[in-house]
Design a protein that fits this description.
Helix content is 42%, strand content 18%. The chain is globular. Strands 4-14-13-12-11-10-6-5 form an 8-stranded parallel β-sheet. A 3-stranded antiparallel β-sheet has the order 1-2-3. A 3-stranded antiparallel β-sheet has the order 7-8-9. It has 372 residues and is an alpha/beta fold. The mean pLDDT is 96.
Length: 372
């Protein structure tokens, strides 16, 4: 079935929303954080571990799965759910961001038909079009597919951004025309940098196409300021329908999630929790900590006493530091479990704050603690 969104409450002091997302694999609360499983796997973690963290939707990546193992292989396996043994909802991004960020030497040729670029794996010439992106996602059989868009750099000129927005709209229409998986929902993507008139134009025109949900893109590019990110949200949200989910792509810093929720965002994703875990870092109420720090050598407390994750229930900072310093892969696994649960727990607390109409108080206290 197509996903459905029920708006349950808008917080009285902000634009924050409490809602329910109905999917092929159950109903889930929003706001939500979605762990990223680029290659049909959230790095080092099993589906069972994700479920224990109260994970709902997870992401996989069209570009990466197109290259390895190939969409046909996944289709033969019965789709992504069967292939990766995850019985929860899956969202696939379009591959657009990876084309513009990972292409070999970042050399690419954007034409009306699509994008010519070189594989980040072997330099092979590739050509990805809006139609092909959707056709790949149809074969992957995710619950939510994303329209193929252009991701311009934060430094792009007004003229470039205007042309890019118009191209993305044409690509969205072309992708929607070939989308033929009746179980799969399709989201449109709003672009336009931090320019109000372009965001407004992009949002209005994208909504006219009547997608199943809407994403705000172009906010996780290199070089973009936090101020520009928040502007992009503020300029887009007023033109998105209240009865469809709103997804902020690629954002996973805790304070950015809070700011996004305050502005009316329902869904977030980011590779950050697993990426920083592989480098020995952990989210905590009082900011990120580096487990390689010598002060944890004899610290036999958990990363966070109040955390209910598997890692914090069973292991000390001293043990995790030992694993990280010795380059034992278990260290990164345990930190990934904690970091993902931290962000999911954050959204649980945000939902409670929305219910009680004290989201701004929650934000102020969180920032005060986090910046210690």
């Amino acid at each position: 079935m197509k996903i459905k969104y029920d708006l349950l409450k808008v917080e009285k002091n902000t634009k924050a929303r409490r809602g329910k997302l109905h999917t092929n694999y159950g109903t889930y609360d929003t706001p939500m954080f979605m762990p990223v499983g680029t290659l049909a796997n959230v790095k080092t973690l099993t589906p069972e571990e994700l479920k224990e963290m109260h994970s709902a939707v997870i992401l996989s990546n069209t570009y990466h799965l197109w290259l390895r193992p190939g969409a046909d292989i996944v289709e033969k396996a019965g789709g992504l759910h069967q292939f990766m043994h995850y019985d929860g909802p899956i969202l696939t991004d379009s591959g657009g961001f990876q084309v513009f960020s990972l292409a070999k030497n970042k050399k690419k040729d954007i034409v009306e038909e699509g994008v010519h670029f070189k594989s980040h794996l072997d330099g092979k010439d590739l050509f990805l079009t809006p139609e092909l992106s959707i056709q790949i996602q149809n074969k992957l059989d995710s619950d939510i597919a994303m329209s193929f868009d252009e991701c311009p750099p934060a430094s792009a000129s007004y003229e470039y951004l205007k042309n890019s927005v118009e191209r993305t709209l044409r690509w969205a229409q072309r992708g929607k025309a070939v989308h033929n998986n009746e179980r799969q929902s399709l989201f449109g993507i709003v672009q336009g940098g931090a320019i109000e008139e372009l965001r407004k134009f992009s949002a209005i025109e994208t909504v006219k196409m009547d997608f199943d949900g809407y994403s705000i893109g172009g906010v996780a590019n290199d070089g973009e300021s936090k101020e520009d990110m928040y502007k992009a949200i503020d300029y887009s949200i007023p033109y998105l329908p209240e009865d469809k989910p709103r997804y902020l792509m690629g954002v996973g810093e805790p304070i950015d999630i809070i700011e996004g929720v305050i502005r009316g965002i329902d869904m977030f994703d980011c590779v950050l929790p697993t990426r920083i875990a592989r480098h020995g870092n952990a989210f905590t109420k009082y900011g990120k900590i580096n487990m390689r720090n010598a002060k944890y050598k004899e610290d036999f407390e958990p990363i966070e006493k109040r955390c209910d994750c598997y890692t914090c229930r069973n292991y000390s900072k001293a043990y995790i530091r030992h694993l990280v310093v010795c380059n034992e892969s278990l260290g990164g696994r345990l930190l990934s479990i904690h970091n993902i649960r931290f962000l999911i727990r954050l959204t649980e607390e945000l939902r409670e704050a929305i219910e009680q109409d004290h989201l701004l108080e929650y934000k102020n206290q969180f920032i005060q603690d986090y910046k210690q």
